Amino acid sequence: MAEILKVQNLSRHFDLGGTTVKALDDVTLGLEEGKILGVVGESGSGKSTLAKLVMALDRPTSGEVLLDGQNLFAMSPRQLCAARRNFQMVFQDPYSSLDPRQTVGTIVAEPLHLDPGAPKGADRREMVGALLEDVGLSVGDLTRYPHEFSGGQRQRIAIARALITKPRLLVADEATSALDLTVQKQILELILKLRAEHGVSVLFITHNIGVVDEICDEVAVMQHGKLVETGAARAVLDHPQQEYTRQLLSAEPTLEVIGRKGRRVASR
Amino acid sequence: MMLSVQDLRVSFAREYGDPVEVIHGISVDLEKGETLGIVGESGSGKSVLSLATMGLLPRTARASGKILLDGEDILTMSERQLCRVRGRKIGMIFQEPMTALNPSMRVGAQIAEGLRLNRALSRRDARAEALRLLEMVQIPRAAERIDSFPHEMSGGQRQRVGIAIALALEPELLIADEPTTALDVTVQAEVLGILDELVSELGISLVLISHDLGVIARIADRTLVMYRGDEMEQGETEQVLRRPSHEYTRKLISALPGRVRASLEMSDG
């Protein structure tokens, strides 16, 4: 199957007066059309730097990001702008990523300026309304403001905004980390549904390996800017080859032993 | 009995219309040295319950019922009495250590602040005590880190400083409201481990509030499940997780990642 996204020997170094921080160090990975790739690692592992580069919001020290075979960093500003409708992003904090002074209708329709052929007027409103229903909101929400919504609903608005240009790649950076577990589950289900209906490929960045297990086909484990392990999610999670992956897995809460008393007995 | 909440109701006055009741009669007890987990999603009233226990409800709130701390009712105490309770008898750990700590004050001074005010320690003694507390929460190279500012520390270290501040005055009851929610999974496990160890060692009662049943299951002896200001169920954590008696608890369990759920089923014997 064709690779929608290819990251090739990508590095991003920061010079901090004498010392160099290798935020991203020679990372190579690929995402096949219609798949969900989870990038998992702790704070400082370079996963958000990766997301920024894939979104062309930053320039690499070396290496390439190919979207549909096109190198993002070899494009002219005009070409890049035109290409942007094909890759969109959902951010972590649904409270800071939506403009509080704009209505939901305006927020969701905003990326349409990337598409010169986008419908206008009533057609545009209809298009935005249909998408809101797609993500589990309603047409009536078009004229409301972000503060009227809960965290989970706001994240649905952010997802609708990311999908309005019918992108082929969605980059989600810790998109469910600020949400309650019950709401997280709803959002994960929504992403799976949208993938099934629209065939969108997803780069899903998270520190939570449990979430990877829920929705990802492939997984890339990162630590200190380097790729530690990559492969099919099932295989990597069930049979981790690297010590660091095992560490991440064992840090996850489990319910084998419940409560302190249970653990004291178990450790005896 | 360390803490006894009896038929607590909390309502908030509104500019227009009748007050809104957000906690509809909660009763729960906590023994000395015991850990109580309170679990529920946003809007379940778990944070309002913890604020009420600290006597920190905003002015627009009205509370009825009783919150007995060592037999004394928090709800009828004067602000002066409450000031003697907060910090000394009840310590609190907040969710977001970056906003809970003072960004312009070195962490050692922040830990020492309460010691100097409440125990009238000298500057030197308070600093020595702050260092001991930093070592207790396992901050590496504590002697150097004591002069760090919060922004120079990682999220996990900041939250350990938060724990050190809460434990500085040796409270008998500790309230931790989503103490690990802002942290990575690996750091979360470390911080929970440290918290659990200290609370057990010092024999402190702990109220642990979280939306994550996985966190609650780790250290809570008993668990209260809340939804929209009502109790759904309470009991031994083991009982609540393995044999939930309420539909909502089953929903919370089903929201856990599949791997975690599998570990629950596997171990059910």
UniProtKB/TrEMBL annotation, chain A:
Chief localization: membrane
GO BP, sorted A to Z: transmembrane transport
Highest taxon, organism lineage: Bacteria
Domain ABC transporter: 5-249
GO MF annotations in UniProt: ATP binding; ATP hydrolysis activity
Keyword Transcription regulation: no
Nucleotide-binding found in the keyword field: yes
Keywords of this entry: ATP-binding, Nucleotide-binding, Transport
Pfam family, any one: ABC_tran
Protein name: ABC transporter ATP-binding protein
TrEMBL record, chain B:
Single GO biological process annotation from the record: transmembrane transport
GO molecular function: ATP binding; ATP hydrolysis activity
Main location group: membrane
GO annotations of cellular component type: plasma membrane
Compartments (UniProt record): Cell inner membrane
Lineage: superkingdom: Bacteria
Positions of the ABC transporter domain: 3-253
Protein family (similarity comment): Belongs to the ABC transporter superfamily.
Name by which UniProt lists this protein: ABC transporter ATP-binding protein
